[in-house]
Amino acid sequence: MLFPAISSRATVEFALLSWAVQSALGATFENLCRHLEQNLRIENATINLVQYVPSESTLLFPDNDISCNRSSQIVAADICRIALFVGTSPSSGVQLEAWLPRNWTGRFLSTGNGGLSGCIQYEDMNYGTSLGFATVGTNNGHNGTSGQAFLNNPNVIKDYSYGSVHTGAVIGKTITNAFYGRNFTKSYYIGCSTGGRQGFQSAQMFPSDFDGIVAGSPTLDFTHLTAWAGWLGIVTGYNTNDSGFVSPALWKTIHQEILKQCDSLDGAVDGIIENPDLCYPNLDILRCNRRLTHNCLNSEQLRRASGVFEPFTYSNGSLIFPRMQPGSELESSDTFYSGLPSPYVYAVHGNPAWSALNLTLADVTFAQQLNPFGINTWNGDLSSFNASGGKLLHYHGLQDYLISSENSARYYNLVRETMSRTHVELDNFYRYFRVSGMGHCRHGPGAWMIGQSTIGRTGIDPKKKGSAPETIRGLKYRDDDPKAEILLTRRHCRYPYQNRYTGPQPLSDDESWTCML
User: Fold this and answer.
1) 517 residues of the chain, pLDDT tens digit each
2) Residue 362: in which H helix or E strand, if any?
3) Among 52, 87, 251, 271, which residue has the least CB neighbours within 10 Å?
């Protein structure tokens, strides 16, 4: 059968006798790597490269799509690198790499992608192998970041929705077991943004793929999210010469006013809004009048700026997507309020000439009903993942300028309601942490360095009883340089707890903050 299901496709024939002979003769790691290709058979796959890479080498990626912005990677550990193409249908396939470290700990790690990206996250693969994980990454079933590959090719959308990560998990595990001559002990997944959604998709559709999942800032409710992106552009306007357009300078004024109104709600004034869900700014204070003539908003600017902090709804008031959380407006004004929702162009309408200026509620309804290959990833039933013993750690920056953090709380509550669980009961396998002062996956004024890619720090290892974290400790370095001075630390609370300054230590000391319901 041509292109059978991935579970049957991942058939590997490995010459165990040859392996045993080589091991008995003291074959080196390098030689085992170099002989891997001749002993490895994967159906519907073309092996493009097998190479031994010593630590501190610089790998070059001359064929990587330029939009991936990744031309090289310094490798931290001795690895055996395998690159292959796996056909997933007659019109689609996945570029996959497996990095197998010399100092293997018996654990397997799969990495995700970002945005519409068809780019292997080589930095995550390097991090995984530096910790002794056999690590796999894929190109998400297409190359580059434009999303153009979705046009008139539903199988590419299928790989983007779920196929690429599942293919990588199945084949990556098989390669791992074959290379080392024994089975992996535990399997994990890390990803943020689209990678976060991919983690949830794995938990929902393939609950046995991973023992532990770290999913950050996920693009959940995907078609509504992309519609919201277009709606924000319509609300704020595309014509920068329009008198109602809110300039970057005015967004700075708005940001300062929001901090003035909401920063102290957590008991401390430190430039970080710990609980943006409590913040409902009154921007009318900035309305221009005879006394306030500079750094102020005219009526149309006021309407547009305030609209960003309102939920996106249908005409009957039912929710499409939550509001943008206050505090993120500086970065959002630079990136989001004039963007085009590419998935609508290629995956929904199949028309490159379509413009977000033409977005209607009918478009939103159509995309939601289409929901190609379950791309929305909005299933609140994680009971199979829980039954398999899986653990899921979910995080989201509260200053995320691309995806409202309120959507993560919305999904958590969907799971709680669907499974009829209290938050205490959900804690047994699913914990959601809100990271104050963190932008989209990283950066920001807060203690955002939480070890996003560090499985060892996140505490999701099912082998360790009682290892699930009550809080996640974050760090903020000067200039975001881990070699520089630590400016502040903070223990970020798991939802639904909220952080509040209780003293008596300085604001920068995490001991001064308490998680409260």
Assistant:
1) 333 344 434 444 443 434 443 444 346 899 999 888 887 888 899 999 999 999 999 999 998 999 898 899 999 999 999 999 999 999 999 999 999 999 999 999 999 999 888 999 999 999 999 999 999 999 999 999 888 888 889 999 999 999 999 999 999 999 999 999 999 999 999 999 999 999 999 999 999 999 999 999 999 999 999 899 889 988 998 888 899 999 999 999 999 999 999 999 999 999 999 999 999 999 999 999 999 999 999 999 999 999 999 999 999 999 999 999 999 998 887 776 544 445 666 777 777 777 777 889 999 999 999 999 999 999 999 999 999 999 999 999 999 999 999 999 999 999 999 999 999 999 999 999 999 999 999 999 999 999 865 554 444 454 455 568 899 999 999 999 999 999 999 999 999 999 999 999 999 999 999 999 9
2) helix 361-370
3) 271
Known catalytic residue at 400: yes
Q: How far apart are CA 55 and CA 10, in angstroms?
A: 30
Question: What's the length of the chain?
Answer: 517
Residue of 142, 166, 440, 492 marked catalytic: 440
Catalytic site residue from 92, 110, 193, 333: 193
End-to-end CA distance of the chain, in Å?
56
Contacts of 360 (CB under 8 A, 6+ apart): none
Residues 94/142, Cβ–Cβ less than 8 Å: no
Respond yes or no: is residue 440 known to be catalytic. Answer: yes
- Measured in degrees and rounded to the nearest 5, phi and psi for residue 135 equal -125, 140
Residue reference for tokens 């001991």? 511
193 is catalytic: yes
Domains assigned to the chain: 6-221+379-499 (3.40.50.1820), 224-373 (no CATH)
